[in-house]
Amino acid sequence: MTCQPQHLTLESRLVQTGVGRDERTGGISFPIYPSATYRHPGVGESTGYDYTRSGNPTRQLLEETLAELEGGARGLAFASGMAALTTLFLHFAAGDHLVVSEDLYGGTYRILDQVFGKLGLSASYVNTADTAAVAAAIRPQSKALLVETPGNPLLGVADLAALGALCREHGLLFIVDNTFLTPVLQRPFEFGADVTVYSATKYFGGHNDLCAGALVARTADLGERLYFLQNSTGGILPPQDCWLLLRSLKTLSLRLERHCANALSVARWLKTRQKVTAVYYPGLEEHPGHELSKRQTAGFGGMLSFRVNTPETARQVLKRLRLVSFAESLGGVESLMTLPAVQTHADIPEAERLRLGICDRLLRLSVGIESACDIIADLEQALT
Predict the structure, then answer these.
(1) Is 39 a catalytic residue?
(2) Is the full-model pTM beyond 0.90?
(3) What's the topology of domain 5-249?
(4) Can 353 be counted among the known catalytic residues?
């Protein structure tokens, strides 16, 4: 099959990130520009770069790559996913109201409740897999809908097309945290999203050696407003980390292919274990979001959760793991497992956690790219 350059697939465009951009040397790898400040040619003149908080060549390439990857107008790179979310929430004002996924990262709940709540920004948490429940939560003061799909840690699946239509009807900013799937597997702008949010530490970085975040705006106007906040508050990603993230993006499609295949194999195997009482993975046919996922994603991702029979079993598994690491975070090439109730979601009040099903028997597994047989063998000995 022949393919013209302007019609390159997403996979090829990722691999070619930065190639040809360093015209002076022809370097295949785009250079790191560590300079904090830049000389001006004259009064009122600029090279396009003045101070690295406002703009840096390495970060500019990363941000342009993120926007192009997503199909948006502007990308912005931050020092962490929480820095990206903080900047986004600063877009709103005291008295504004947000509708937010209840199946979400505990750190998002924490910053909304304990930081922005004190500044007058309120939020209602709903099951965003239930479009009617989302509609019922909208108030006159509502300004945005923030959705994580699949959810964290129970992997609920929201109907992005239905929610996009709902946001247009009510004039809400539609925000999608797409960390679990990335634009390779799920493309929120095609369903009406206005902003996508990423903890780029996860699949974008992919090697558990980088902390970063990202926002991508669908329109230039919104992108400019978010850039103003990024530049004003300064939570930028340093140039060395921008380069490392650019390098990681080149293998994103390849890594996700293996993550998805391994996760499905592990999920199917977990279903056969006597001590496992439930498995949450959209790739399983019995998952309530399976058919919807097939329509709106190109793959089911590398994340799954499962519930075991007792809290003692959960702790036994974590203690006995050998190949899989008992560690927070997700999306790296190495498999990681956490106990969300005491780690990633500990800031959510206990009663709310239990209502959602985030109990001390629930384990979350970020399935890496090791041999699926080796991952399963490690889980088998840990569960025995």
Answers:
(1) no
(2) yes
(3) Aspartate Aminotransferase; domain 2 (3.40.640)
(4) no
